[in-house]
Design goal:
The chain is mostly helical and 401 residues long. The chain folds into three domains: 243 residues, Rhopdopsin 7-helix transmembrane proteins (Up-down Bundle); 87 residues, no CATH class; 60 residues, Orthogonal Bundle (Arc Repressor Mutant, subunit A). One of its GO terms (molecular function) is DNA-binding transcription factor activity.
Length: 401
C-alpha cells in the first residue's frame, strides 16, 4: 500500500494511530462495563480520526496516485453532521442514566445520512453513468466543499450549545434533589465541552489567521490546523478514557416545551407527583397552611432525627419517609426554607459542625472528621458549603471562638 513517509504525513499518522488505539480501548471498556457513554465517546474519537485521515493520506501521496485518489474522493471521511449529535448524545448519556437512543434521537442523525446518500449518488453517476469525473472534474474532494464545511461547523456549534443547556439544567436539578450535588456535577463535563469548544474555534482562528498570513491557507499551511486538532482529540481521548463517573439520578426533560423535569423511579405511576419544575419554582416565602405543615415535618425529620448525617440523602428519601411525593417536598423546601434541597441539608450539616466546634470537639478530633460525622462526603464540599453559609473558612471561624 502506498504511503510516502515524510514529516507532515508521519506526524499525522502518529496522531491518527493513537486516536484509533484510544477509540478501541474506550470501546473495549464500553463492552466490558456496558456503559452507553463510552460507546459514544469511542465513536466520537473514531470520527475525529477519520477527519484527520484525508490530510494525512494526502501528504502520503494518495491524491496524486490511483486508485487511492478515487478512494479518497468517493469515501466520506469528514462526517461533520454526525459529530454534533454524537457529542449531544454523549452529554445526555453521562448525566442521565435513563437516556435511550430512540426514533427521536435518530432524527438528529438524518442530515449526516443525507450527506452520505449525496456522496453515494455522486459515486454511482461518475462510475456507472458518466464513466469519468463529472462532479469531481475540478479535482476537489467534496468533503472540503465550502458549504459542507460551514454547515458542519454550524451544526456542531448548535449541538455544543444544546449540550451546555442540558448540563445547566442537570446542575439545577441536582441542587433540587440531592444533598451531595458537588460530587456529581462532574468536572469532566466542563473539561470535554471546553476541549470541544477549542475544536470549534480552531477553524475560525485559522480562517482569521489566513487573512493576515495567506500561506496558512495553502495545503501545507493547513497541516497546522490538523496538528492542533489532533492534540485536542488526543486530550479528550486520554481524559475521557480515565473518566469513571456516571450519574445515578434518572430524569426526563424537554427543551421545546415548559413541562417540568420528571424524576423517574421503578414504581412511578403519576409523573405529576414526581415532577420538579426548576424553571418556575422560586425561593419565595409562603405561609400557606400546607407549606407550614410539611415544613414542620421536614424540620423534625432532618434536625431531630438527624437525617442530615446521611451523606447520600435525596429528596426522594424524604418523600418516601413522609409518605408524600417529591413535588410537595421540593415546593415546601423552596418556599418554606427559601433555598434548594442541597443548600437546605447543608445548612443543617453546617449547624451541626458549628455546634461541635462550640463544644470544643475540634481539640480532640480532626475538622474533617467532624465534617464527615455531620454528613459531608468530601473536604472540598465541606469547605465550600461552610464558606457559603458563614462567610468564613472553617479555620477562620475557629479563630473567632
Amino acid at each position: 500500500m502506498l504511503f510516502q513517509f515524510g514529516f507532515y504525513s508521519s506526524v499525522l499518522l502518529i496522531s491518527f494511530t493513537q486516536g484509533i488505539v484510544y477509540s478501541a480501548l474506550i470501546l473495549a471498556k464500553a463492552i466490558k462495563t456496558q456503559n452507553k457513554s463510552n460507546y459514544l465517546l469511542s465513536l466520537f474519537i473514531f470520527l475525529c480520526c477519520l477527519y484527520i485521515a484525508p490530510w494525512m493520506l494526502g501528504f502520503a501521496g494518495w491524491y496524486d496516485n490511483q486508485p487511492y485518489r478515487d478512494f479518497l474522493f468517493y469515501t466520506p471521511f469528514q462526517h461533520l453532521l454526525f459529530v454534533g449529535p454524537i457529542i449531544f448524545f454523549y452529554t445526555q448519556s453521562l448525566l442521565n442514566p435513563s437516556f435511550k437512543f430512540s426514533k427521536k434521537e435518530a432524527l438528529h442523525l438524518l442530515p449526516g445520512f443525507i450527506y452520505l446518500l449525496y456522496i453515494t449518488a455522486i459515486w454511482v453517476y461518475d462510475k456507472f453513468i458518466f464513466g469519468d469525473y463529472y462532479f469531481y472534474k475540478n479535482g476537489m474532494d467534496k468533503d472540503f466543499d465550502y458549504w459542507y464545511q460551514k454547515l458542519g461547523l454550524v451544526s456542531m456549534i448548535v449541538y455544543f450549545i444544546l449540550s451546555i443547556q442540558y448540563y445547566n439544567i442537570y446542575k439545577k436539578l441536582m441542587l433540587q434533589v440531592v444533598s451531595y450535588a458537588d460530587t456529581i456535577l462532574f468536572k469532566w463535563i466542563k473539561t470535554y465541552l471546553i476541549a470541544f469548544l477549542v475544536m470549534l474555534l480552531l477553524p475560525i482562528f485559522f480562517d482569521i489567521t489566513g487573512v493576515f498570513y495567506p500561506e496558512m491557507k495553502s495545503y501545507q499551511g493547513s497541516w497546522w490546523f490538523f496538528l492542533f486538532f489532533s492534540i485536542v482529540m488526543y486530550y479528550i481521548a486520554i481524559t475521557g478514557y480515565s473518566n469513571p463517573l456516571n450519574t445515578t439520578i434518572p430524569f426526563k426533560m424537554s427543551f421545546f416545551d415548559k413541562n417540568p423535569i420528571l424524576l423517574l423511579n421503578e414504581n412511578q405511576t403519576n409523573e405529576t407527583e414526581n415532577s420538579i419544575d426548576i424553571q418556575y419554582e422560586t425561593f419565595e416565602e409562603s405561609n400557606s397552611p400546607e407549606i407550614e405543615h410539611w415544613k414542620s415535618k421536614i424540620e423534625t425529620l432532618i434536625q431531630d432525627e438527624k437525617w442530615y448525617q446521611n451523606s447520600e440523602l435525596t429528596l426522594l428519601d424524604l418523600a418516601k419517609k413522609l409518605g408524600t411525593n417529591v413535588s410537595v417536598i421540593s415546593k415546601t423546601i423552596n418556599q418554606g426554607f427559601e433555598m434548594n434541597f442541597n443548600d437546605c441539608i447543608n445548612s443543617y450539616r453546617i449547624k451541626a459542625v458549628k455546634n461541635s466546634l462550640a463544644d470544643g470537639e475540634h481539640k480532640n478530633s480532626t475538622l474533617l472528621g467532624i465534617a464527615f460525622d455531620s454528613g459531608f462526603n468530601s473536604k472540598a464540599t465541606f469547605n465550600r458549603a461552610f464558606k457559603k453559609n458563614t462567610g468564613k473558612t472553617p479555620k477562620e471561624y475557629i479563630e473567632t471562638l
